[in-house]
Amino acid sequence: MPEEPELETDAPASAFGRDVLAGLAERPRAIPAKYFYDERGSRLFDAITRLDAYYPTRTERQILLDHADEMVEAIGKNAALVEYGSGSSEKTRILLDALHARRTLAAYVPIDISAAFLEQTAVSLREAYPGLPVLPVAADYTRAFDLPELPSETSRVVVFFPGSTVGNFTQPEARDFLRHVAEVAGPDGALLIGVDQWKDEDVLRRAYDDPEGVTAEFNLNVLRRINRELDGDADLDAWAHEVRLDDDPPRVEMHLRSLVDQTLTVLGERFRFEAGESIHTEDSHKFGPDGLASLAEDAGLVRRRRWTDPRGWFAVELYET
Ligand code: AVJ
């Protein structure tokens, strides 16, 4: 999002430090969810997506498989597909397969915060889709970034934002984000976005508190990261993974609950926790059938299409500027 420009001296590690110190001083205490994803965190998230309990990835994947042809049609000829937070671009391959089979994509622009991962992915995509310009951008897509120069035949920019990652934003953040997407996409631009839906509470709870404990490890990983990168002294046995459901707005929250009275030191600053006090680490908003559409409307994005699974657990929606 176009907020304060990063200073040259502002290494990612210090943004992490700044945000953690600020978040622990706040009430309620909170750490932004984007800091889960160091290398281990990304691997844990990958493991989450394969859990029986974690339905979103599998459900979205099936929607893409079932409706790829209609999506390709709706995307149109010679689009540049710009993916926010591409990771290994695994799901995108479903779309890329369908688009590339018709030789109808002008370029694929994966954007990810992890430059090393991105380069690897670009190499394997160029191999899989010969002739497709793959133009990776290493950036934090929640901040301002420049699109690379697109091939001259490009007809429009289509932003792809799968996984219901939009659910990590608060409503005002989501509005700002969607406004920013509309700007990046430009006139005639589009957004293809995955949106997780509110559903049975037991299903939601299990998805975020799986019996294998992988999500608990994922949540606790942010403390490991603090220990390693911010000279922290968190005792991992003194913290517990906690999931709470809330309905205004509908969301799953993750917290780290202190099991004892303790002091957590981060970059030399000391934070006192009483037993039972918690750090809010993630919001995963769940939407009603028109929930995202009304936020998007405020950002000047109009919903054109909506694809869902038979149970209505997840939706993939297409918006236009
Ligand atoms: C990647 C943000 C979509 O909210 O479901 C998975 C992250 N957190 N399990 C989600 C997550 C706990 C995930 N998103």
UniProtKB/TrEMBL annotation:
<dbReference type="InterPro" id="IPR051128">
    <property type="entry name" value="EgtD_Methyltrsf_superfamily"/>
</dbReference>
<protein>
    <submittedName>
        <fullName>Dimethylhistidine N-methyltransferase</fullName>
    </submittedName>
</protein>
<dbReference type="InterPro" id="IPR029063">
    <property type="entry name" value="SAM-dependent_MTases_sf"/>
</dbReference>
<feature type="domain" description="Histidine-specific methyltransferase SAM-dependent">
    <location>
        <begin position="17"/>
        <end position="320"/>
    </location>
</feature>
<dbReference type="GO" id="GO:0032259">
    <property type="term" value="P:methylation"/>
</dbReference>
<dbReference type="InterPro" id="IPR019257">
    <property type="entry name" value="MeTrfase_dom"/>
</dbReference>
<keyword id="KW-0808">Transferase</keyword>
<keyword id="KW-0489">Methyltransferase</keyword>
<dbReference type="GO" id="GO:0008168">
    <property type="term" value="F:methyltransferase activity"/>
</dbReference>
<dbReference type="InterPro" id="IPR017804">
    <property type="entry name" value="MeTrfase_EgtD-like"/>
</dbReference>
<dbReference type="InterPro" id="IPR035094">
    <property type="entry name" value="EgtD"/>
</dbReference>
<dbReference type="Pfam" id="PF10017">
    <property type="entry name" value="Methyltransf_33"/>
</dbReference>
